[in-house]
Amino acid sequence: MTQTNVKPIIIFRFLAHEGSGYLGDFLTAQNIPWQLVKVDEGEALPTSILAYSGMVLMGGPMSVNDDLPWIAPILDLVREARDNDIALLGHCLGGQLMSKALGGVVTQNAVKEIGWGEVMVSQNEAAKNWFGSIETFNAFHWHGETFSLPQGATHLLASPYCQNQAWSIGRHLALQTHIEMTAEMVQKWCEEGESELKESVASPAVQQADAMQQELPLHVFFLQKVAKQVYSQWIKGLKA
What we know:
CATH topology: Rossmann fold
Strand order of the largest sheet: 2-1-3-4-9-8-7-5-6
Structural class: alpha/beta
């Protein structure tokens, strides 16, 4: 598949080890140009999103409700993308930024959810469009907050510990869960999040690092099959 006529996709990174992951590999394999903006390193945000075919927001440990200088401009770019039919894709913090920009709210989840855990695909046409025949899958989680669905959004995924795991509005997709994981990312997050894991040991929805890394290649293999299905649908909505 060649997408040489497509404008590049812009991917916003908010933490060094929460980068493009499998999504970057997927886009490169599809010959779709993409560029990474390292917000965590102070790289400048574009003043407009119109030069891009799609806008992707990755994860991060901060809250969308924090007083950070880049949050308001990012929310403006999300709204500009929505208003101009430029496909949006958010992972975890990215999904929360999309929700807040489009009128939803981000609040504390009942429990912190970290590690591998089953999510259920909603029974509706939008969910079938994004996930095909997949009814459940073992997703990767690392979040303490949750988003509400903006007006006009369709619910796509739920887990036992977090009802709102994904929503879509047309070509725009917001995920609370992480489908972009590679084995290296899981290992790095376990290292970087060691103290958080110890502090959260009482949560029924938190796995410790050794449990997360058991059969890691197998978990990642199956998750990337889901990600490939989802990303293949998302790129159909890219603006020429």
